[in-house]
Amino acid sequence: MFKNPSIIMRITYGKTIGLIFAGSGILIFPYFYPDIGWITQLAFVLYYIMIGAFVGMMGVLNYHPLIKMPLPWWFRGPWIGGWMNLVLMMFIYDELSTMQTQFFGAGTILASPWWFVVEGALFGLFTDFICTRYAGEGVACVTNADLNP
């Protein structure tokens, strides 16, 4: 079940990286933003575990059949992470703006919530690199690796 390449291992690596990343965020959040509630912290943990799983699952698609172009790990991971963080940023723009302003101070370039999208792209890049390096990618992940007992 855990042979290389394997979709199960890709998802496992993605979820583990998401848990580690979000867990480190839980340790850092109270120092920079003491008003953050436990529900928001739990939401970030579950959110990054979900992004890790998405990046892991999407590793099967290393070629886009509609536009007939390859999807290498260095494009696929940042696209998924950046897109997911863009969607989340649009929903929590005001709270994220307050958090960024408290983190970095008002009037600085890093106070913009749009940096959250860049952070998601970097997270996706790192996650897809690890998943591809240690669990493979493409059709080989789902053909026989997870079906043999």
Structural write-up:
This protein is an all-alpha fold and about 150 residues long. The protein has one domain. It has helices at about 5-30, 40-60, 75-90, 95-105, 115-135; strands spanning about 65, 70. A two-stranded antiparallel ribbon has the order 1-2. A hairpin with a 4-residue loop joins β1 and β2 (about 70). The N and C termini lie close together (about 5 Å). The model has no long low-confidence stretch (mean pLDDT about 90).
List the helices and strands and how they pair.
Layout: H1 7-32, H2 38-58, E1 63-64, E2 69-70, H3 73-91, H4 93-104, H5 115-135
Antiparallel strand pairs: 1-2
Helix pairs in contact: 1-2, 1-5, 2-3, 2-5, 3-5
